[in-house]
Amino acid sequence: MSTRNFPIALLAAGIFAAAWSTNAGAQAGGPGLGQPVSVTDAAAWDISIQPDGTGLPAGSGNAATGALLFATHCVACHGAGGVGQPNDKLVGGQGTLTQLQQVRTVGSYWPYATTIFDYIRRAMPFQAPESLTNDQVYSLTAFLLAENGIIKPGDTMNAQTLPQVKMPNRDGFIMAYPKRADRARR
């Protein structure tokens, strides 16, 4: 830095330090920006779905409805029937995870059906994430599960049935940080 810019840098640092140290609106020594978030406010933003189904909303859907929705919202990116192109393949790949040319799809790789619901709800369709209703997300999830042969085409998916679906690769994952006996006592 040139000596000509030093006074400006020193002035900027002083202003920053003064703004940081002010208590006007500061919460617990924070920078004084925004407002505290209540537990109720945070809960409204939490749309996470756990593998055991905790957090699944009310609603239901089936593969037949899901097929219609897929043709409308998903086929442009994932191809007819979810076979891929231009984006990821969603159907097929069972039995390939032990091969050199693995095909990782919803049906071959994902360990929990609830994760499919969670991902579709928060990230799809690509151009309008979080725009689908819960019934539409259940239907699309049912469609993908049926296309992969994991559920019967007539099965209905909802908050009770979806967590009961056993994915083919559920036992193919190991815990990176398994619980140890000494950690459990803490």
Observed structural traits:
186 residues, two-stranded antiparallel sheet, Cytochrome Bc1 Complex, Chain D, domain 2, mainly alpha, 7 helices, single chain
Description:
The protein has 186 residues and is mostly helical. The chain has a domain at 60-166: Orthogonal Bundle (Cytochrome Bc1 Complex, Chain D, domain 2), CATH 1.10.760. 36% of the residues lie in helices and 3% in strands. It has 7 helices and 2 strands, in the order ααβααααβα. Strands 1-2 form a two-stranded antiparallel ribbon. The termini are far apart.
Topology:
Blueprint: H1 6-21, H2 39-45, E1 60-62, H3 63-73, H4 75-78, H5 113-123, H6 134-147, E2 156-158, H7 181-184
Helix pairs in contact: 3-6, 5-6
**Given the helix and strand composition, which structural class is it?**
mainly alpha
CATH topology annotation of the domain at 60-166: Cytochrome Bc1 Complex, Chain D, domain 2
The total count of strands amounts to 2
Cα distance spanning the termini? 51 Å
| H and E string | HHEHHHHEH
Please bin the fraction of helical residues. 25-40%
Superfamily (CATH H level) name of the domain at 60-166:
Cytochrome c-like domain
Question: How large is the radius of gyration?
Answer: 24 Å
Shape: elongated
What spatial order of strands do you see in the largest sheet?
Answer: 1-2
Which CATH C-level class of the domain at 60-166 is it? Mainly Alpha
What would you say the CATH architecture of the domain at 60-166 is? Orthogonal Bundle
Q: In this structure, how is the largest beta sheet organized? A: 2 strands, antiparallel
List low-confidence stretches. Answer: none
Number of helical segments?
A: 7
